[in-house]
Specification:
The protein has helices at residues 21-28, 40-58, 61-64, 70-98, 109-138, 144-168, 179-198, 206-235. With 274 residues, the protein is mainly α. Helix 2 packs parallel to helix 7, helix 4 packs across helix 7 and helix 7 packs antiparallel against helix 8 (206-235). The chain starts with 20 loop residues before the first helix and ends in a 39-residue tail after the last helix.
Length: 274
């Protein structure tokens, strides 16, 4: 947890970076204080969870019912932002209550504040993009082009940021390694349950509607269970344990695709590697 108070971008952005909103989003929404994955297999599971979460967020029925609807995408983004604004702090609050006997909230205050900043930054970006989009469609004349360019930049920034925060879930791994998987599960179910309760199948038949509504949350839940189970078995990371009571995590492994070469020679003898 030592990185919780580190730099936000870690010097990874330059002036030229702002010509590429995807690169800016990739850096801003995955700050330097978020710990790196310690296990390539867990990282692969996280990527699968991101894909399933994207299906839940944008709604696969949008494509089934006649193609991509940009207005519905923006409406879903605003709805998801409102859900995240309430459900993320609420879920973390429940876990703080569960952890109360193993440690204090004060021990996690720095990490929690950083996560809250990242959450508010993302929601603010979504609201700003939707607002500028509405203004740009109503404008005409010389003011239209610069505003449209800014809106387009923000749109790419938000979409790339959404992919990024779907993986790290606002940096909550800095609080507890299992929190991102839990939050992804809770959020996808919360987005799906109202449709089931109200019977709103979005014009699909009963069977197809249930499959498409439940498909994403069930998939996210299954992947999240695999993710948390692997963290528990390999590293002793238990969701119900206060972060202060968890065993120290090993350093991140070598990049995927590169074989690990152990140190050569006797490390206790000078020049032993030769």
């Amino acid at each position: 947890m030592a990185r919780a108070h580190g730099s936000w971008i870690g010097g990874r952005l330059t002036a030229r970076s702002f010509l590429k909103p995807k690169d800016v989003a990739w850096t801003v929404f995955h700050p330097a204080w978020i710990p790196e994955s310690v296990d390539p297999s867990v990282e692969r599971l996280k990527r699968l969870r991101v894909i399933a979460g994207a299906i839940a967020s944008f709604g696969i029925y949008t494509f089934v019912e006649g193609g991509f609807a940009f207005d519905e995408l923006m409406e879903n983004a605003l709805t998801a932002s409102v859900v995240l604004l309430f459900i993320t702090p609420l879920t973390v609050g429940v876990m703080l209550f569960v952890w109360r006997r193993g440690g204090t909230v004060r021990q996690l205050r720095g990490q929690l504040l950083n996560c809250l900043k990242l959450l508010l930054l993302f929601i603010g970006s979504v609201v700003a993009t939707v607002t500028l989009l509405q203004f740009s469609t109503a404008l005409s004349g010389p003011a239209f082009l610069p505003l449209a360019l800014v809106t387009l930049w923000l749109f790419v920034f938000v979409v790339a940021g959404a992919i990024r925060v779907s993986g790290n879930f606002f940096g909550t791994a800095a609080v507890h390694r299992s929190l991102p998987a839990l939050l992804a599960t809770v959020t996808t179910w919360l987005m799906a349950v109202p449709d089931l309760v109200t019977g709103d199948l979005h014009g699909l038949g009963l069977t197809m509607g249930i499959v498409f509504i439940l498909g994403a949350p069930v998939t996210v839940t299954a992947i999240a269970l695999l993710e948390t189970g692997r963290l528990k078995r390999r590293y002793g990371v238990r969701l119900a344990t206060h972060p202060a009571g968890l065993p120290p995590m090993p350093p991140p492994g070598p990049p995927a695709g590169l074989p690990h070469v152990p140190p050569q020679g006797n490390p206790y003898v000078r020049g032993g590697g030769g």
